[in-house]
From TrEMBL, chains A, B:
EC number: 2.1.1.22
Lineage: Eukaryota, Fungi, Dikarya, Basidiomycota, Agaricomycotina
Family assignment from sequence similarity: Belongs to the carnosine N-methyltransferase family.
Pfam family, one: CARME
Name of the top EC class for this enzyme: transferase
Gene Ontology MF term list: carnosine N-methyltransferase activity
Compositionally skewed regions (Basic residues) per UniProt: 129-140
GO biological process: methylation
The protein, known as: carnosine N-methyltransferase
């Protein structure tokens, strides 16, 4: 499979990974500067206004936010403390395209059983795509239009606002997937999907049933499905997510081991200082408590490239190999949803089931990177699914937030579409 | 007052106005191109995928969106059909800074009784600021960071994404303020404010009570307050809003005279074609039905400059001249809310009342124009109000959307803060 990737692909991939690691490392510097801007702005005011702001505690709050930024930085630095395990050759973020023209392209393959560090040469078919929009579900369409892939020279990469937004989203993803605070969101989203999966395969031996979770993010849904006894593979594409899930799944020993402050980055729509500065403990479970023998893996790379079956070797084909595909806030990451749906249909085994939950926030709408984008409405997606050969059932709407700050004065509520789909033809 | 403005200020102001008019005129071209991108993207797909999209009606939908864009363009062109009435010297959008070095700065003053075209030399003190963030309440913080004020040469101004976002927001503001569809939002926001106003002045002669509505937008709250019999002045700063409210208040004769399609600009989170393409009729009332003798005016310009009392002539001072100030989704437009609150406190008459409703989406947070921004949380704003000399009462939270597409799969809900405040000191 690695034959499909040119040296240039591999180098771009390496560079992108290096840039993401640098973004993690530069979080403190960037965020402290953003907060310090507020301090400077105070000094543009009259002395009387400054005194009033002092009196209501604004200046003191800025100090407390600095402290919280440093705590977040400590956590983020832990995530990238040992990035070499991902098979990338990093020189403290100084990697440049010129460094290693003879890069072994076998490094391009990586997947690992979670709870173990990834290693090269794993049997699972996998690859990294070379187009790197993270799959976090962001409200900020515009952010997508920055291209984080810009080449850089020998100098240290300077993270962009786009990178930092990804980092801040990553912190909120931790809340969603691995904190007690995220339980209500998980209950709304993951529970109906898990129930539908259990019902569909009622009475069957779960360990023999292969479940795929594309867009696995920080891995909680895939982990939960594995914990239910199914053989489960998550697939994820964003380096932000992959680095982060590795910390949680493989390097975290106890409940509440990490403390993060996910709500300190915007000062808008905040009811109180306590709401903004509230800490969140990570994780809510010990991932290593997963029963021995559980088949749970995460595969890094682009869904279409990995499962799209552009392979010469029949034995590597995914066609008909999956008993269930669970897509949660995923299908709108497609440039062309027709292809996503065709792939899901093709890889499902006879009697298999596709369970979907999510909105239609088309991630590539308004991109300025020249990527095509097909943006269907919900009726069209359902009609498309039927035409591709699915039979839909249990169609309903689930109202849910997504990595939402439930104490914000602005709430986002998705009317997410749920359905089960089986192969009709 | 015009002595405060330099020739450069006046020229920048003219240029900005000209650019906004150009944005209205360029809407069709820009929006058709954006939609045509979708058509082109279809041709990057395989023939089989294209055929499927055809079969589910995607291509036909793109044509219908084109038709709706042209209908919107017709409406927007009506708004700027006669911009000279605003006292600006336009040459079909070709104005440039070099055109008129001897520009009469008295043109900088404008205000008008609504229901009449504005004229120069009106008695009301007023001015245009030269910093032009519109006051529409946008969810997209990032958009704010584009600077629409960039100078241009002799060539036609090319509207930016920022300008076009303002236009799309303007269409949604029409729904909120002047359509039957906006009634539920208005009932949630304007009704409690009007009730509080009526209660505060129960039994008093309304015509003698002067009510100010800063951030008046398209003018509905101010219009409603005037209709209740109060003497009401709206204040607005955005050219998008000012041009648009002029059409509704002064050039619209019948209910449902205009038809717009506010929901066609994003293809994300759309449940169905019908939801996206649904027309909205404007207006829901005949603004000219306002009772004769009603004192209702709109003043164009920056709130701090107009009401901040930086005047030598005591007779022009606003201090103590207003019986009520109604701020709806307004206080977070401040760079420095301390100054907003001081001004509101200063201009209120003894026994006067400040009625507030809104979130705290600080409009200047993350700006990249070098403007200072003080971003308080709700507890701090309330504490600040008390320190400035207000006594707060009737404090509560009102859950409401703001120019929301209620059929979208993504809903925004504000937990807006409501309060009444009187001068305690």
């Amino acid at each position: 499979m690695s034959g499909r990737f040119s040296e240039k692909d591999v180098q771009e991939e390496q560079m992108h990974f290096s840039n993401v690691v640098t973004a993690f490392q530069q979080y403190a510097q960037y965020s402290l500067a953003a907060n310090n801007r507020r301090r400077k702005d105070m000094y543009t005011l009259s002395q009387a206004d400054r005194a009033l702001l002092d009196a209501i505690g604004y200046k003191k709050k800025l100090q407390e936010v600095d402290t919280a930024i440093l705590a977040n930085a400590d956590f983020l630095n832990r995530i990238v403390a040992d990035p070499e395990i991902f098979g990338h050759d990093l020189s403290a973020g100084e990697y440049s395209a010129e460094d290693d023209p003879n890069e072994d392209s076998s490094r391009h393959q990586k997947s690992w059983n979670s709870l173990d560090p990834p290693s090269r040469g794993d049997d699972n078919p996998c690859s990294h795509g070379h187009s790197h929009y993270g799959h976090t579900h962001s409200h900020g369409h515009n952010l997508q239009t920055s291209d984080p892939r810009r080449p850089h020279g020998q100098g240290k990469y300077k993270p962009t606002d786009f990178d930092m937004d990804k980092l801040r989203s990553t912190l909120k993803q931790f809340v969603r997937d691995w904190s007690e605070d995220g339980k209500s969101e998980r209950d709304l989203c993951y529970e109906p999907m898990k129930r539908a999966l259990e019902e569909h395969f009622e009475g069957q031996e779960r360990g023999k049933l292969r479940v795929l979770v594309p867009g696995a993010g920080l891995g909680r849904l895939a982990y939960d499905v594995a914990t239910l006894g199914f053989s489960c593979q998550g697939n994820e594409f964003s380096h932000y997510m992959l680095l982060s899930s590795h910390l949680i799944l493989n390097k975290t020993d106890s409940i509440g081991e990490h403390t993060i402050y996910p709500y300190i980055h915007s000062f808008s729509n905040i009811p109180s200082k306590a709401a903004m500065l509230r800490p969140v403990k990570i994780p809510d479970v010990r991932p290593s408590d997963i029963p021995p023998g559980t088949d749970f893996s995460l595969v890094a790379g682009d869904f279409e490239e990995i499962y799209g079956d552009d392979v010469a070797d029949e034995s590597e084909s995914h066609a008909g190999r999956w008993d269930a595909v669970l897509t949660c806030f995923f299908i709108d990451t497609a440039k062309n949803a027709v292809n996503y749906l065709r792939i899901i249909h093709r890889i499902l085994a006879p009697g298999g089931v596709w369970i979907n939950l999510g909105p239609l926030l088309w991630h590539f709408e308004n991109n300025d990177t020249g990527d095509p984008s097909i943006e269907l409405d919900l009726e069209e997606v359902r009609e498309l699914a039927r035409k591709i050969g699915f039979q839909l059932s249990d169609e309903r709407t689930i109202e849910t937030s997504y990595t939402s700050n439930d104490q914000s004065m602005l709430g986002y509520i998705y009317k997410a579409a749920f359905w089960k789909a089986t192969k009709a033809s």
